[in-house]
Amino acid sequence: MRRLGECNGLEYYLWLFTRLSAILMLFAGAAGIVYANIWGRTMMDAPAQYRWAFFPIYWHVQNTDVPDVFPLWSNAFWRVCCTILLFVASLHGFNGLRVVVEDYIHPAVLLLLVKGLIALLFMFVFGAGTVIIFEWF
Amino acid sequence: MPFRTFRVSEDALSVLAELLHSGMREAAVGGRGAMETRGMVRLRLHRASFWETLRYQGGIGALVWILHRITGLGILLLVSVHVLAAFFMNALDDPISTAITRWYESRPVQVFVYFCVLYHALSGLRVLLEDLYPPLLRYHRELIWLQWAIFIPVFGLPAFFIARGIAVSSP
Known about the structure:
The complex is a heterodimer of chains A (137) and B (171).
Chain A: H1 9-38, H2 46-54, H3 59-62, H4 69-73, H5 76-104, H6 108-136
Helix pairs in contact in A: 1-2, 1-5, 5-6
Chain B: E1 3-6, H1 10-21, H2 26-30, E2 41-44, H3 50-55, H4 60-91, H5 95-104, H6 107-132, H7 140-164
Antiparallel strand pairs in B: 1-2
Helix pairs in contact in B: 4-5, 4-6, 6-7
């Protein structure tokens, strides 16, 4: 292994996080679709299936003619899954936005401001999503 | 900041050098992920504007790279707006949040979100495989065609169902 200069550790861990979270989200999506089709024993249209795979909150199947929504689809297990998925997905997304922004915004002060705004937005979206999962659904 | 430091494996480095020498310019742009594996190297970073990126004649590698970026931003924008609208709809029950939620749940937007999610997932999976096993970069072009071959039917059929409002039953 050759070393040609110092490497930013945080940058590397965020790079690694992007890949690992991608694997997690791919498996979570596949598991959600399998669960919806095998254990759901229900009528679900295509949008409901991918909504459930993307974010398994019971509001996402409530509008379809799925029976016993509350005991089957709204419990602690899916809420914890949802929260983990929300955290991982929003960090993956906002970190991706940071990488894109670093490519197109050149002045250092403006870049710092925009990155701060991205961090605030991340916290706001994650907070709002967590409140949605645990307070209302 | 003309230079940026990346970690790169010996494998990825040799494959990348080989591809660049064989005149595949798009490897440098389309296979950006491959430059960032283990090990370390300094790469000169050319700061291109968005429009310059669109004009860049990098072929299919540059096209899938910019599409990966656009679909990622699309997911981030639409899903964040959807989460925030759902939050304010429940907190305030105001007409704006309700209208945004109705717009998000309309069929064209659902098809667009499905396009973004599926494209970003498949393209990301290809980048992931190329990063885990850099010799795959020799088949970069073929992997891109494989990605489209999977994408077109897997996107087309559900998109047709969503657009026509057809329910899929699973007894």
